[in-house]
Design a protein that fits this description.
The protein is an alpha+beta fold. 36% of the residues lie in helices and 26% in strands. It has an 8-stranded mixed β-sheet, sandwiched between helices. Helix 6 packs across helix 7 (172-178) and helix 9 (259-265) crosses helix 17 (537-547). The radius of gyration is 31 Å and the shape is globular. The structure holds one RNA strand.
Length: 661
RNA sequence: GCCGGUGUAGCUCAGGGGUAGAGCGGUUGUUUUGUAAACAACUGGCCGGGGGUUCGAAUCCCUCCACCGGCUCCA
């Protein structure tokens, strides 16, 4: 055996090290500063501890805190430090799992004697973590047999369960906690604290410290609501102080955009306690936004060949027996009211069965297909009490729901044009950063044959691929009657929202025995496509409000122009121009001179009105306005009224926003 | 539904066993203003609901409700 190793570095160079050298030795040989910040190493594409001995010819990259791999390692190690801190503060704690998540980590605990964490405990735990970090504890990796592992964690029931699960084959979640199935690995920090973990970890706790514990929450063991509920602590951790601050700033930014806050500030909607959770009323200003959204949607759907249908909010239960909804989702439906000698009536949670009945109301010919039925259908779902959330998760909502019945031959073409229709509409609302998700057959909860499912799935996949957007697989995420494509949109601050869904359904037409007469004179089963573009109108509005931070594009703004006369003497001119604008369909008001100019401008700015027009002596004499556009601190003077009107109408027509000069 | 937190005026919040407060808002009057807060007076509350402890409860205890953050769920 030679006494040197050749190691390939990411920049293409190579470096010789003595046999037996570790990744840390490599980092040291490259530079002492690198060695000081090094967290782990990537050896032939696998992230490993710095203590790993290198082998000749390996490609090695030293992992630093600012890289994706580095963040993952330091978050994971920080989670272990948190576990140790909790165990120190609450001896006898059972600790469960502590993975990394986007932007941070969590760890699940069961405190002794049914104790609970409070928010105040977070500071105590943080302080204890900082002590552990200042102790520069090493992370010492060891490997054990299964039997040793069971022995080592004899007093940790959750760890024992994980080890036994790994022994039995295990899920990827288990193996990431423990090891690969024949051996398990542990990391020891001190004589009294060892955790089961696959690793890798930072070499010493001294590498950590840029973190913050965020919140405490309940979480079911293994995500199963029938199993014990543990106490979960969430934290965030970063490679630099700046990155942490940036992340905290992002959270504040998200809070600033919260549609619930903006909805109250801008007087758009509210949730009167008298109505019950998850039931919203739209105020006049919110009503404008909603009406404009719906009107635009109607116009586009008419152009795209949809026909408009209507259905009642309540129906006998038979309908949902036939559709299968009662079987799968009765928990999520409002309980029935019994009428007419035991007849059970339900509020509708879905529109599709109604549309099928419309299809079935008479014999259908292939010449009528594809038949596209659209409805703004209000549905009611009894969401569990803990899940309602602003307009995004409500108990009463309106779907922009459509069902397309078509032949098997038409299916692919129909889906293709549908997908581009959907994306084009979303772009008109200012969302333009998309990816697609394909949700496939749910394992336990599906009707239909394997052939039907695989045909549906492969058709959807082909359509999604043809669109050329990024496609992500969501295994088992489909509905019980068919797979779906969902359009995911990234908003202005990088969050993703599930927007439109397109579902392919061979089942409901069968369950309802829907048929059409084909060109060969045979009764034939149609294919059904379910699709919602906004999803729910309420939720879509919420997403738009957050995307634009309340400053909606001019065409959607509840109030588009406020005219502010400098003094009462200019009121006539202001009202005259507001009449002109209103005749052009502009939503405009005049702020009379009862308050100082600055106050009236401030009020309009706080309402995020796109244009504030100030009119004074010069304007009255010259037929001009002073234009204060939203987002600008530098108003334009002496703009001719006609020029402003043209510019405004063009902006509204193009779905634009005020151009800040 | 489960875990934790929070409920005081329309809004944002202070007060923590002894007569319920501020700012903003609203109303009225005065002010007539060139680009983000004029001045004054007035108005505002079963301190989330119910029960209990106490001579006395916004304050302490129990319970219900609502909201907030998560978990589970999401046709």
């Amino acid at each position: 055996m030679s006494d040197t190793l050749e190691i390939l570095l990411p920049d293409g160079s190579s470096r010789s090290l003595p046999t037996g050298a570790t990744a840390l030795n490599l980092a040291e040989s490259i530079g002492s500063r690198l060695a000081k910040v090094a967290l782990a190493a990537i050896v032939d594409d696998v992230v490993v501890d710095l203590s790993t001995r290198l082998t000749n010819g390996s490609r090695v990259e030293i992992v630093v805190p600012t890289s994706v791999a580095g963040l993952d390692v330091l978050r994971h190690s920080t989670a272990h430090v948190m576990a140790q801190a909790v165990v120190r503060l609450w001896p006898g704690t059972h600790f469960a799992i502590g993975p990394t998540i986007d932007n941070g980590f969590y760890y699940d605990f069961e405190l002794p004697d049914d104790q609970r964490f409070s928010e105040l405990d977070l500071t105590r735990i943080e302080d204890e973590m900082r002590v552990i970090i200042s102790e520069s504890q090493p992370f010492v990796r060891r490997e054990h047999s299964m039997a040793e592992g069971l022995e080592l964690f004899g007093d940790q029931p959750f760890k024992l369960e994980i080890i036994r699960a790994v022994q039995a084959g295990g899920t990827s979640e288990d193996t990431s906690e423990a090891g690969d199935g024949t051996i398990i690995s542990t990391y020891q920090n001190t004589d009294t604290f060892t955790d089961l973990c696959r690793g890798p970890h930072v070499p010493t706790t001294a590498r950590l410290g840029i973190f913050k514990l965020m919140r405490v929450a309940g979480a079911y063991w293994r995500g199963d609501e029938k199993r014990p509920q543990l106490q979960r602590i969430y934290g965030t951790a970063w490679g630099t102080k700046d990155a942490l601050d940036q992340h905290l700033f992002q959270l504040e930014e998200a809070e600033r955009r919260d549609h619930r806050t903006l909805g109250a500030q801008l007087d758009l909607f509210s949730f009167p306690p008298e109505l019950g959770p998850g039931l919203a009323v739209f105020h006049p200003r919110g009503g404008v936004i909603r009406r404009v959204m719906e009107d635009y949607s109607r116009k586009r759907h008419v152009e795209a060949g949809y026909e408009f249908v209507y259905s009642p909010h309540i129906t006998k239960g038979d309908l949902f027996e036939t559709s299968g909804h009662l079987q799968w989702f009765s928990d999520g439906m409002y309980p029935p009211m019994e009428l007419d000698e035991g007849q059970r009536y339900y509020l509708k949670p879905m529109n599709c069965p109604f549309h099928l009945l419309i299809f079935k109301s008479r014999q259908r010919s292939y010449r009528e297909l594809p038949l596209r039925m659209f409805e703004f259908g209000s549905v009611y779902r009894y969401e569990k009490s803990g899940v309602v959330h602003g307009l995004t998760r409500v108990r009463g909502m309106t779907q922009d729901d459509a069902h397309i019945l078509c032949t098997r031959d038409q299916m692919q073409g129909e889906l293709t044009s549908l997908l581009s229709f959907v994306l084009e509409m979303l772009r008109e609302f200012g969302l333009d950063d998309f990816y697609l998700e394909l949700s496939t057959r749910p394992p336990e909860k599906a009707v239909g044959t394997d052939e039907e499912w695989s045909e549906a799935e492969s058709t959807l996949e082909a359509v999604a691929r043809a669109e050329g957007l990024e496609l992500v697989l969501d295994e088992g995420g489909g509905a019980f009657y068919g797979p779906k494509i969902s359009v995911q949109a990234r908003d202005a601050i990088g969050r993703t929202h599930q927007m439109s869904t397109i579902q392919l359904d061979f089942q409901l037409p069968q369950r309802f025995d829907a048929t059409y007469v084909a060109s060969d004179n045979q009764r034939t089963r149609p294919i059904m496509i379910h699709r919602a573009l906004f999803g729910s109108v309420e939720r879509f509005m919420a997403i738009l409000i957050e995307h634009y931070a309340g400053a909606l594009p001019t065409w959607l703004s509840p109030e588009q122009v406020v005219i502010v006369p400098v003094a009462s003497a200019h009121a006539d001119f202001a009202y005259k121009f507001s009449d002109d604008l209103r005749r052009e369909g502009v939503r405009v008001s005049v702020a009379d001179a009862t308050e100082p100019l600055g106050a009236r401008i401030r009020n309009a700015k706080m309402q995020k009105v796109p244009y504030i027009l100030v009119v004074g002596n010069d304007d009255v004499s010259n037929g001009t306005v002073g234009v204060n556009a939203r987002g600008s601190n530098d108003p334009e003077r002496d703009v001719m009224t006609l020029a402003f009107t043209e510019r405004l109408l063009a902006e509204i027509a193009s779905h634009g926003r005020p151009e800040v000069v």
